[in-house]
Amino acid sequence: MELRQLRYFVAIVDHGSLSRAALVLHVAQPALTQQLRQLEEELGVQLLHRSAQGVLSTDAGKVFYEHAQAILKQVADARSAVTQSATRPSGNVTLGLPHSISGALALPLLLAARERYPEITLQLTEEITGNLNEQLRSGRINLAVLFDDGQLTPFACSPLVEEEMRFICRSDSPFAPAGHAVSFPQALSATLILPGLQHGVRPRIDSRARELGLETANVIEINSIAILKSAILAGMGATILPAAPLLAELDSGAMRSYAIHSPVLSRTVALCASKNIPLTNAGNAVKNLVLQVAAELCGSGRWVGAHVL
């Protein structure tokens, strides 16, 4: 198996046809077809379905595509690590952000990276936490912001912030409490719109409920922050989340948030990298920049409900 075969295979999948991939790669199509055939013979599986409309990955091809991407990224990172300057880091760095963090961190980080490290191409990917774990483990991303739920031992982690979690609903919602705060048992009695079990917020809520002998019974599961917002505004229920992803609606008065007590809920946010795949100079520069930007956002109050660890 050769690196060029991996590059060829990824290009075919990305462009959806052998002919388009051949044009992009500047390789004759018969040669491309031959390399693909040799790769499939070596692996002993069919990677692509061919048709007049183009190509589609088989189940085996989808699995191999993820590994091929990770390998090619690590090769590119290794090349960058030995050629880039420590004083002027350059290259590509991919950072994964959970949906509920990107609203607070993504834009300030992009602006800071562009100002301080113009030769670094910072790529942000927004995913649910479970996907970020897997992508970081396989090397498809260099860094990820994750929630410390006691399962981060495979990674090298730096504590980032502690975020307060609040009870949030539409301003005129029947689920709105009478005062300025709500107890955790009271919050659980409402119809809650929450991310699925693979999301970083949900395990924290469920584990705390179990500790108290309570259940999260009336739950509507939505993994998209945009759809979750729409469901709250439609009056379908309330949620338990940090304020940051819903800040625009809270500032406009469309939603209200309430402190949770008995017990107080919060989550620990960490910046993580692989223990097995070293960061390039550019990766280390971005890592330090994330820590600096998070501290600046907390200090100025722009990351609402968060304080630096």
TrEMBL record:
<dbReference type="GO" id="GO:0003677">
    <property type="term" value="F:DNA binding"/>
</dbReference>
<keyword id="KW-0010">Activator</keyword>
<dbReference type="Pfam" id="PF03466">
    <property type="entry name" value="LysR_substrate"/>
</dbReference>
<comment type="similarity">
    <text>Belongs to the LysR transcriptional regulatory family.</text>
</comment>
<dbReference type="InterPro" id="IPR000847">
    <property type="entry name" value="LysR_HTH_N"/>
</dbReference>
<dbReference type="Pfam" id="PF00126">
    <property type="entry name" value="HTH_1"/>
</dbReference>
<dbReference type="InterPro" id="IPR005119">
    <property type="entry name" value="LysR_subst-bd"/>
</dbReference>
<dbReference type="InterPro" id="IPR036390">
    <property type="entry name" value="WH_DNA-bd_sf"/>
</dbReference>
<feature type="domain" description="HTH lysR-type">
    <location>
        <begin position="1"/>
        <end position="58"/>
    </location>
</feature>
<keyword id="KW-0804">Transcription</keyword>
<keyword id="KW-0238">DNA-binding</keyword>
<dbReference type="GO" id="GO:0003700">
    <property type="term" value="F:DNA-binding transcription factor activity"/>
</dbReference>
<dbReference type="GO" id="GO:2000142">
    <property type="term" value="P:regulation of DNA-templated transcription initiation"/>
</dbReference>
<dbReference type="InterPro" id="IPR036388">
    <property type="entry name" value="WH-like_DNA-bd_sf"/>
</dbReference>
<keyword id="KW-0805">Transcription regulation</keyword>
<protein>
    <submittedName>
        <fullName>LysR family transcriptional regulator</fullName>
    </submittedName>
</protein>
